[in-house]
Design brief:
The structure holds two protein chains of two kinds. Chain A is of the alpha+beta class. In chain A, 43% of the residues lie in helices and 22% in strands. Chain A contains 19 helices and 27 strands. In chain A, strands 1, 2, 3, 4, 5, 6 and 7 form a seven-stranded antiparallel sheet that branches. In chain A, strands 9-8-12-11-10 form a five-stranded antiparallel sheet, sandwiched between helices. In chain A, strand 8 (254-261) and strand 9 (266-274) form a beta hairpin. In chain A, helix 6 (186-231) runs parallel beside helix 9. The N and C termini of chain A lie far apart (143 Å). Chain B is α/β, with parallel strands linked by helices. In chain B, the strands form two sheets. Chain B has a five-stranded mixed sheet with strand order 1-2-4-6-7. A two-stranded parallel ribbon of chain B has the order 3-5. Chain B is globular, with a radius of gyration of 13 Å. Classes of the chains: A alpha+beta, B alpha/beta. The A-B interface holds A 590, 593, 612-616, 659-661, 663, 681-685, 699, 701-704, 707-708, 711, 731, 735, 782-783 and B 22-23, 55-57, 59-61, 63-64, 67, 91-94, 96-97.
Chain lengths: 794, 116
C-alpha cells in the first residue's frame, strides 16, 4: 500500500512533532486531573496516564511505516483496554484498508474493504468523526446509526469505534470488539480515544513522512535522470540511458523515444528499453510520418500526455497484450517539440502512484527535451565545422590548380571522399551550343560515360534542367532528378541529385550525384552545394580567363596589324604636276586591309594605287605590306600597268602561304599626254567624273592577285582633262552601312562627288566623308574606308 | 543567317549559305568546308542562291575551299549567284576562278558525270 519504493532514504525526523505531542499530552493530563479529584481516582489516572504517555511516546517514536505503526497502536491500546479483537484501518478513497487485524487474539492478514455500497458503522464514524460505543449489538440494533457489516459466525456483542483524525480529515478507524455484551464502557471509550488521538497524529505523520519520502525519492530519481542525461552527448546513448532509467524508476516494462526530425518532418525511432524482449532495432521504423499513427499526431499537435490503446505493429512485441501506451511529448526549453516518450502504462490503478509516475515522466521529458536540444545544437555546430573543413579542402584544391580540367578532376575526386556518394560527374555546358558535355567523372565505367556523352547531346532532359531551375532564396539549390531510362543505365543508381553550377547568373554546368540512398542529410547537401559553387566559379573563371587571354591576343594582334597598316599609308599627299590630290583613310575597329600608294615614276609620271586585302588582322596586314613592297619594286621600272600587276601576281602567288588575296587598281598618270593608263585586279572601279557632269567607271578585265599563279590582266588608257576628277575608293565606302543595313552605295558616291566636282580635291573628300558620316550615324563600321580624289586642275 | 550542310547519296556535300556571307558567317562557312574537305576527293557545291551579300572575307573563304579541294583532287563549285553576287565575282575576277552554275542540279550533274 504505502510501502516504500526504492532505497530507504535517510531522513531525520523533525523533533518538532515530538514537542507538539508532549505538549498535547501535558494538556490532556491537566484536563484529566481537574475531572478526577479523588486520590484513588487520581492514582488510577496516574497509572493510566503513565500507560497512555508510554503508549503515546511509543507511538510517536515509532517507525513511520504505517503497518508497523498499526500493530504498535493495537499493542499500546492493549495497555488500556481489551484488545483481543482489534483493528486499525486507514481510508483511501472508497477503500478501507485494515492494516492490523486481530480476532479473538488471532492475528489476521491485512485486508481491504470497499465502502462504496455499504459503509456500515465504519463509514458512519468516518463521516461524523465521532466515537461510537456499542454495549450490546442485539439490543441496540435499531438505534445504531448504521447497519453493522459483520456476517461472521460469532458476531461481536459489544464494540468501540474511534475515528483517526488528522486535522479536519478522518483518515482511519481503530475499533475494539468483544463477543460478550457490555464488555466496554464509557471509560474504555475515553481511554481508547486518547490512543486514537495519538494514532491519528502518528498516521498523519507517517503519511506526511511517506510523502516526504516520496518527494525525496522523486528528487533523487530526477537527480539520477539529470545526471544520466547530462553525461551523454550523443543522441543514441543519451536516449538509451534515459529509457533504461525511466523504465526502472517508473516501473514499466517498456520505454522508448521517438525524435522529431525537423529537416525531413518525420519522427524517427531512436532507442528504447523493453523488459521482456531485446528490441530488434532493425525492425524499428526509420521514419513515422504524419498520418501514420493518429495518437502520435495528436501528441504532436496537442503537446499533451496521451494514453492510447492503438499500438503500432512495431511496438507490439515489447508490450504485454492489451496494455495501453502513454505518449509523453518531449519539449525543449525553447518550446520546440523534440520528440515523444513512449511508456507502457502499467496496470496499477492507484492514483497516487499514477500521479507520481506522471510527475516523474514530465520531468524526464523536460530533461530529455533540453538534452536533445543541446545534442542537436552541438551536432549542428560540429556539422558546420565539418562542412567548413570539407569545403576548405575543396577550395585549396581549386586554388592549387590553374587548369580547369585539373580543378574539376580534383573536385570530382573529393566528392566521394567528403560526401560518400556512389557516382559523380560534372557536366559542362557549352556556351555556344548550350549542350551539356561530360567533364570529369567518378565511379562510372567507360560505357556510362560514353552513353551520357553521346546521348546528352541529343537528349533534351539535361537541357531542361536549366529551364527548370528557379531562383530561390534558400542556400541549397539542388534537384532530385527522376532519371530517364538511358541516364539511369549510365549512372546505374536509383537516385540522382543535380546541383546546378551557377556563377554570375550563368548556368555553366551540372554536378550530378548518383546514390543508392534515398535520404541525404543537410550536411551532405550543404557540402555538395558548396562544391558545386566552387566548381561553378572555377568554370566561370576559366571562361573569363580564356576570354581575357583571347581578348589580349586579339588586342595585341590588332595593335600590330594597325601599326603595320598605318606605316604603309602615305604621310600626306604628293605634289603631282597639274593635279590637286586628297586622300582619306579610316581604319575600322578590327583593322581591315585597305591601303593606297603614290609611286613616283620616271619622266614625271605617277603611279597611283588603291587596294584591299581580303580579310583582317595581322596576316592581312603582312600580306598588305608584302603586296605594297612587291608592287613598288615591280612598278618602278615598268611603264605598263597590266604587265606590272601580272608580275606582282606571280611573285605574290609564289610567296603566298595563305589563302589571302588582294584586289588592286593601278593607274599611271602621264601629265604630258593628259592620259591615265590603268589596270584593275578585281577592285572596285574608280569613278572618272568629267567636267561636264558625265562619268565613267574605270573597268578593265582582270582579277584579284594571289589567287591563281598566272592571270591575264587587261589595260586601258583614258584621257584626263582639266576639270576632270578621279575618285578612287574601297568597298568600305560604298558598303558603309546604317542601322537599317542600307549601304551608302555607288550611285550616292557618284552623285556626291559629281555635285562637288568643281571644288578642290580636299573639299570633295570632306563632303563625301560628311555624307558617309551622316549616312551611317552611330553604326560601327566593319571595313576600312579609303578615299582618294585626284583633280586635274591645270 | 544560317549555313547548312547536307551530304547527298552521291557523296556530294551541299552547303547552303543564307543571308550575308560576311564576317558574321565566314567562320561558320569555313567549318562546314573543313568538314566536307575531310573526304578524299571532296565534291562540294556551295549554293549561294539565298546569299544576298558577300565581302572579301567571304570570297577568301570560298577561294580557300576551292584551292584545298583542288589539292585533294576534288572540286568546289558555286551555284545560284544573284545579280549582285555575279557583279562582285565578275569585278574581282572570280568568275574566272570558280565554275559557277545556275542551280544545284546542273552543278551536281557536272560532278557526277564522268570527266570528259
Amino acid at each position: 500500500m504505502f510501502a516504500q519504493i526504492g532505497p530507504p532514504a535517510p531522513l531525520t525526523w523533525p523533533t518538532v512533532w515530538l514537542v507538539i505531542l508532549l505538549v498535547s499530552l501535558a494538556l490532556t493530563a491537566y484536563v484529566l486531573s481537574r475531572r478526577y479529584q479523588s486520590r484513588k481516582a487520581l492514582m488510577q489516572r496516574v497509572t493510566e496516564l503513565e500507560a497512555l504517555r508510554t503508549a503515546g511516546r511509543t507511538i510517536v517514536e515509532s517507525q513511520h511505516d504505517v503497518e508497523a505503526l498499526s500493530e504498535l497502536i493495537a499493542n499500546e491500546a492493549g495497555l488500556v483496554i481489551d484488545n483481543s479483537t482489534f483493528q486499525v484501518g486507514l481510508f483511501e478513497g472508497a477503500l478501507y484498508h485494515i492494516l492490523f487485524w486481530r480476532v479473538d487474539g488471532e492475528k489476521q492478514e491485512p485486508t481491504t474493504f470497499d465502502l462504496t455500497e455499504n459503509s456500515g458503522l465504519v463509514g458512519w464514524v468516518r463521516e461524523t468523526k465521532r466515537p461510537l460505543l456499542v454495549r450490546d449489538f442485539p439490543l441496540e440494533v435499531d438505534s445504531l446509526p448504521a447497519r453493522p457489516r459483520y456476517t461472521s459466525e460469532r458476531p461481536p456483542r459489544s464494540a468501540l469505534f474511534l475515528p483517526l483524525l488528522s486535522g479536519e480529515d478522518s483518515i482511519g478507524i481503530i475499533a475494539a470488539q468483544h463477543h460478550l455484551p457490555n464488555h466496554f464502557d464509557e471509560d474504555d471509550l475515553k481511554r481508547l480515544s486518547i490512543i486514537a488521538n495519538q494514532a491519528g497524529s502518528a498516521f498523519a505523520n507517517a503519511r506526511l513522512f511517506s510523502q516526504l519520502q516520496e518527494q525525496a525519492w522523486l528528487t533523487t530519481a530526477q537527480l539520477q535522470i539529470a545526471n544520466t542525461i547530462g553525461r551523454e552527448q550523443e543522441m543514441e546513448p543519451l536516449v538509451e540511458a534515459t529509457t533504461r532509467l525511466t523504465a526502472m524508476l517508473v516501473g514499466t516494462a517498456f520505454c522508448g523515444v521517438l525524435v522529431w526530425d525537423y529537416e525531413f518532418e518525420t519522427y524517427r525511432w531512436v532507442n528504447g528499453y523493453a523488459q521482456h524482449h531485446e528490441i530488434d532495432e532493425a525492425r524499428m521504423p526509420v521514419q513515422i510520418d504524419v498520418g501514420d499513427w493518429s495518437a502520435l499526431d495528436a501528441v504532436h499537435v496537442g503537446r499533451e500526455l496521451l494514453e492510447t490503446d492503438r499500438i503500432p505493429h512495431w511496438l507490439r512485441p515489447y508490450l504485454p497484450p492489451n496494455t495501453p501506451l502513454l505518449l509523453q511529448p518531449v519539449i525543449a526549453p525553447n518550446n520546440y517539440l523534440m520528440g515523444v516518450l513512449l511508456i507502457e502504462q502499467t496496470e496499477s490503478g492507484e492514483t497516487a502512484v499514477q500521479q507520481r509516475r506522471i510527475e516523474l515522466l514530465t520531468s524526464i521529458a523536460q530533461y530529455l527535451g533540453q538534452a536533445i536540444d543541446n545534442t542537436n545544437l552541438r551536432n549542428a555546430q560540429q556539422e558546420e565545422a565539418w562542412v567548413n573543413t570539407a569545403l576548405l579542402q575543396v577550395a585549396e584544391a581549386v586554388n592549387n590548380h590553374i587548369n580547369l580540367a585539373e580543378i574539376l578532376d580534383t573536385i570530382i575526386r573529393l566528392v566521394p571522399m567528403l560526401v560518400g556518394v556512389d557516382k559523380a560527374l560534372i557536366l559542362i555546358r557549352d556556351e555556344e551550343t548550350e549542350l551539356f558535355g561530360v567533364g570529369p567523372t567518378f565511379g562510372m565505367d567507360e560505357m556510362g560515360i560514353g552513353m551520357i556523352n553521346t546521348l546528352s547531346l541529343s537528349r533534351p532532359e539535361l537541357n531542361q534542367l536549366a529551364v527548370e531551375e528557379t531562383s530561390s532564396s534558400q542556400t541549397v539549390h539542388y534537384f532530385r532528378i527522376k532519371l530517364e531510362d538511358w541516364l539511369q543505365k549510365s549512372l546505374d543508381v536509383p537516385v540522382a541529385l543535380a546541383f546546378p553550377l551557377r556563377a554570375r547568373g550563368q548556368l555553366v554546368g551540372i554536378l550530378l550525384i548518383g546514390t543508392e540512398e534515398q535520404l541525404f542529410s543537410s550536411r551532405r547537401l550543404n557540402i555538395l552545394n558548396g562544391i558545386a559553387q566552387q566548381a561553378a566559379t572555377a568554370v566561370v573563371n576559366n571562361q573569363l580567363y580564356k576570354a581575357a587571354a583571347e581578348r589580349t591576343r586579339l588586342e595585341q594582334e590588332l595593335d600590330v596589324a594597325r601599326e603595320i597598316q598605318a606605316s604603309l599609308i602615305p604621310l600626306g599627299n604628293p605634289d603631282i604636276q597639274g593635279c590637286s590630290v586628297a586622300s582619306y583613310w579610316e581604319a575600322a575597329r578590327q583593322v581591315s586591309g585597305d591601303f593606297y600608294d603614290f609611286i613616283r615614276l620616271n619622266n614625271g609620271r605617277w603611279g597611283i594605287v588603291v587596294a584591299d586585302v581580303a580579310d583582317k588582322g595581322v596576316p592581312a596586314a603582312l600580306f598588305m605590306a608584302l603586296s605594297r613592297t612587291v608592287l613598288r619594286a615591280v612598278a618602278i621600272n615598268r611603264e605598263n600597268p597590266a604587265e606590272t600587276l601580272m608580275r606582282v601576281n606571280q611573285i605574290i602567288d609564289q610567296d603566298a602561304q595563305t589563302d589571302l588575296f588582294i584586289t588592286l587598281f593601278y593607274t599611271i598618270w602621264n601629265c604630258e599626254k593628259n592620259q591615265l593608263t590603268f589596270s584593275n585586279a578585281g577592285h572596285n572601279p574608280p569613278i572618272l567624273l568629267r567636267a561636264d557632269g558625265s562619268y565613267k567607271l574605270l573597268n578593265a578585265d582582270g582579277m584579284a592577285l594571289g589567287v591563281l599563279p598566272e592571270v591575264y590582266i587587261d589595260q586601258k588608257t583614258i584621257d584626263f582633262h582639266i576639270g576632270d576628277v578621279l575618285v578612287l575608293y574601297t568597298d568600305g565606302v560604298t558598303e558603309a552601312m546604317n542601322s537599317d543595313y542600307d549601304e551608302f552605295d555607288l550611285p550616292r558616291l557618284i552623285h556626291t562627288a559629281s555635285m562637288m566636282r568643281h571644288r578642290s580635291a580636299s573639299e570633295i573628300i570632306a563632303t563625301i566623308k560628311a555624307e558617309i558620316n551622316a549616312h551611317v550615324g552611330n553604326t560601327p563600321q566593319f571595313d576600312d574606308i579609303t578615299l582618294m580624289v585626284i583633280k586635274r586642275e591645270h | 543567317m544560317t549555313i547548312e550542310s547536307t551530304t547527298r547519296d552521291s557523296g556530294i556535300v551541299l552547303i547552303e549559305v543564307n543571308g550575308r556571307l560576311d564576317h558574321s558567317q565566314t567562320a561558320t562557312l569555313e567549318t562546314h568546308i573543313d568538314t566536307a574537305l575531310e573526304q578524299a576527293a571532296p565534291h562540294i557545291i556551295v549554293d549561294l542562291s539565298a546569299t544576298d551579300y558577300i565581302n572579301s572575307g567571304g570570297l577568301r573563304t570560298l577561294v580557300s575551299g576551292w584551292r584545298r579541294a583542288k589539292e585533294k583532287e576534288g572540286k568546289l563549285l558555286l551555284c545560284g549567284l544573284n545579280e549582285r553576287l555575279q557583279q562582285i565575282f565578275s569585278m574581282v575576277g572570280f568568275d574566272k576562278v570558280f565554275t559557277i552554275y545556275d542551280d544545284i542540279s546542273t552543278a551536281a550533274q557536272t560532278l557526277t558525270s564522268p570527266p570528259e
